[in-house]
Amino acid sequence: MSELLISITPNNWLLDPLTHDFMRRALMVSALVGSVCGLLSCYMTLKGWALMGDAVSHAVMPGVVVAYALGLPFSLGAFVFGVGSVALIGFVKQKSRIKEDTVIGLVFTGFFALGIVLVSKIKSNIDLMQILFGSPLGISRSDVNQTLIISFIVILILLIFRKDLMLYCFDAKHARSIGINTGILHYLLLTLLSLSAVVGLQTVGIILVVAMLITPGATAYLLTDRFDRMTILAVISSSFSSVLGVYISYWSDIETGGSIVLVQTLIFLIAFLFAPRYGIFKNQSLINND
Amino acid sequence: MNPIFKSHEKDFMRIEAEQVCVDYNGTVALYDASLNLKAGSICGLVGMNGAGKSTFFKALMGFIRPSRGKIRINGIKVNQAQKEQTVAYVPQNEGIDYSFPVSVWDVVMMGRYGSMNIFRIPRESDKRAVLHALERVDLLDLRERPIGSLSGGQRKRAFLARAIAQRASVLLLDEPFSGVDVPTEKLMAELFLQFRQEGHTILISTHDLNHVRDFCDFVVLINKTVLAYGKTSEVFTSENIQKTFGGTPPNPLSGPQSNKDFVNE
Lengths: 290, 265
Fold this sequence. Notes:
heterodimer; A: mainly alpha; 15 helices; B: six-stranded mixed β-sheet
C-alpha cells in the first residue's frame, strides 16, 4: 500500500481508476447525475423548495424497497412514492389547518419510516446501506440504463420548459395572467424533482440526495445575477463535485456519497467566502463601480 | 404608435363585471360587484385595505373564481382573454423576489412570452417591443442591470414596461404609486394619459385620493361591494368617500367591519 501511495502521480491519480470498468461506469453516472441534479437545483433554490426536495427524496424510500421486492425497476417505485408524497402533502395541507412545513415534515418522515420497516420485514437481498448512502461504485448495468433514460427525460423537459419554469419561480402571477397554466408547471416541477431524486439517490443515497438538489444551485446563486449563467455554473460545479468525489472515494476508500457532498459543500463554502459580489470577502471595488 | 386594438368604437366595453361575488371558505369578500369600462378610459379602484379591492382585482385577472356573477374582458371570458394577451397585470412591489437572477431586459421580455412559441425564443419583433417599452419608461440605460439593483421607482417602471411590451389592451395596476419617487410618479401619470389616448383601458387600485382626482375618468368606490361607480366628477364626492372609508359597510352579510384590517395591513 505504501509503495502504491508513493508511486501515485497526478497523472495516474486521474488515469488509473479509468482502467476499471466499474470506475468508468461510476464516473459517467456521477457526472450525469450531477448535471441533472445541478440543473434542477437552480429551480429548487429560487423557488424555495429545499424542504420539498428533502421530503420527496426521503419519501421515495418505500417505493425503492417495494420495487426491489417485486423485481420492478427501482426507479418506477421511487417515482410513484415521490409523486404520491407530493400529492399527499398537498391534500393534507388543503384539508387541514396545519402549516405547510409541518405537513411536509410529517409526511416524509412517515414515508421514510415505512421504508425502513419494509426493509426489515421483507426478506430479500436489499442492502439498506446501499439505499441510504448510495453506491455508484457498485452500480449495475440495468441501473445505469435507468439512470440514463431518466436523466435524458429530465434534461429534455428542463430545456424545453426552462423559461416557463423560470417565470413560474419568479412571478407565477404574471405567468397566469399571460395564459400560462401554472398548475401544470407546478406539478411538472414536482415530477422533475421526484425523477431527479430517483437518479440522485444512485450516487449519494436517499439521505444526502437533497444536497445534490440544492447545494449547486445555492453556490451558483452566489456567483451570478443571470439565470442562464446560474444554471451553467450549477451544472459545472455539481458534475465536477461528483467526479472529484468519486475519485477521492476511490483513492481514500471513503463513502462515495459523503465524499461527493463534502466536495460540493466545500465549493459552496468557497463561494460563500469569496464570491466577487455576494461573498463575505466581496470585492468592494466591484460593488462601488456599479 | 401602438398596434391598433380590435375595436376602436367609443362604447366598446373592455371590462364587464356583472354582480360578481367572491367568498373564501364561506367568508364573503366581495358581493354584487358590477363594473363596465369602455375602451380608452382610466378608472380608479378605491377602498380601504381589506375592503375587497385586491379580491376584485384577482377576480378580474382570473386568479380566483367568483362564486357568482360574470366577468368579460373584451367581450370574452377572462382565461380566453389572457391567452390572447389582452390583459396585463402590474404587481405591487412587495410580491416580487428581487434577488432573483434576472436583468431588467429579462423581466420586460417576460411580457412577450405569451406571444412566443413554446421555447420562448425572442424574435426580432419581441426584441423591438422590449426596446420600445424600455424607452417609454426611460429605463433603456439600465437594461443590463439585475432587477434587484434598481430603486423602488425604477422597479415599478420595469414592471410597467413588461405590461407595455405585452401590448395588452387592458392594464390592471395594483397600487402603482406606492413607494415610488416623484419623477417616476410623473412619468407614470403621463404614460397613463398616453395609454388612454391609444385606446387602452386602465384600472388602477389605489388608496391615494389625489391620484383619482388628477387623472381617473371613472372611479369605483368599494367596501365589500361597489358602493358607487361612475364619472369621477359625479361620484367622487365627500359623502361617498366618507361611506367608503368610514364606519361599517352598509350590508350585514359580511359581518361587522372594524378598523382591525386597516391596522393589520
